Amino acid sequence: MGADKAKTIKSEIVIVGGGMAGLTAAIGLAQHGFEVVVVDMVPKGDLTAASYDGRASALAYASCQLLKAIGVWPYMEPYAQPILEIRVSDGPSLLHLHFDNETLGDGPLGHMVENRHTRIALFKRLEEFENIRFLAPEKVADINRSASGVSVTLESGVCVDADLLLGIDGRGSVVRRHADLPTSSIEYKQHGIVCSVEHEHSHCGIAHERFLPSGPFAILPLTGNRSSLVWTEKSHLVDTIMNLSDRAFESEVARRIGGFLGEVKVVGGRWAYPISLQYAHSYVSDRLALIGDAAHGIHPISGQGLNLGLKDVAALIEVLVVARNVGLDIGATSVLDNYAQWRTTDNAAVYAITDGFNRLFSNDIGPIKLARDLGMAAVNEVTPLKNFFMSHARGTVGELPKLLRGESLTS
Fold this sequence. Notes:
Layout: E1 8-10, E2 13-16, H1 20-31, E3 36-39, H2 44-47, E4 56-60, H3 61-69, H4 73-76, E5 81-83, E6 85-89, E7 96-100, E8 110-114, H5 115-126, E9 132-135, E10 140-145, E11 150-154, E12 159-162, E13 164-167, H6 174-179, E14 183-199, E15 206-212, E16 215-222, E17 226-234, H7 235-242, H8 246-257, E18 264-280, E19 284-285, E20 288-290, E21 296-297, H9 305-325, H10 333-361, H11 366-381, H12 383-393
Parallel strand pairs: 1-12, 2-3, 2-13, 3-9, 6-15, 13-20
Antiparallel strand pairs: 4-8, 5-8, 6-7, 10-11, 11-12, 14-17, 14-18, 15-16, 16-17, 18-21, 19-20
Helix pairs in contact: 1-5, 1-9, 9-10
């Protein structure tokens, strides 16, 4: 599984980026018979270390269906906390939104899994395939694309020749910059502070999202009496908060949580990440496609970032399998355009929703606050509208790829 020092590696698909979306894509493609090479700058041991980033992800119901379909879920399930309810409130207001899994009667709304455990599960599944090579730590030195294929040269001197290049390498994507695909971005002047807490009382599988003037504060259930916190704060205050003593930081966390979980204790480290909206104007170019954060990075307000990336993965796998089955070149522009058209509209809707919600709720203006509280209360009483929002949280809105519906691509 280490870096292959052969001068040239032949493959069908080369993926730059071995994060959660990149590894999921590699496994899904390999399961459907494609030869895949994955290149990443970070060694496998670092990617799976507890100290790597400290985050956990809310995996929507549909994303879990994908992970089950490609054989990853059995390795994750022991570490997955079902999300049974979601409660959304506007600070101390008594008016709120409440979603529960029993309303739709089709399993949990999703699962919370620490990113470390997801990566470990992905690598365990990856090792079961002979048609995947994982090259790390490796950096891309050069990319050449032509009508007949793509060649990726690494700083070690290894060259990977393939039919298709996938950029799944995050917001600062080397692949996107190579293709000179224009992007737009909005800086929110907010940071997400992330940590985990142990608490006295059970969370009962309930995810809480509270809207405070500085931004949303999410309390997300993990296995055991633990929760992951995503505390959105104004950027100019972040250094002060991050430099607090352990005791002072824990006190600030406890104050924001309130007393409903009993005594709370911060466990592990704390991390802070700048928050912005960024999206590429096009997801594809000649023999190249972008997936996940390389194509679109959104505000964490709805917990949909990774889920959007996994939708991209499922859609591209389906498009490539269909193309191969009818004898088409998987790197052809017409094939990649099918992927781009499928995903662009859905992703754009999520950009607009998350941006609008953040702007609406990240303030304390009296008339706006009253209007949004009344709006939440109204949605809570209108069943069809409430069910739509619940379906959105479960990732089941729109034209879903088969893998997100838990269906085989051969059916």
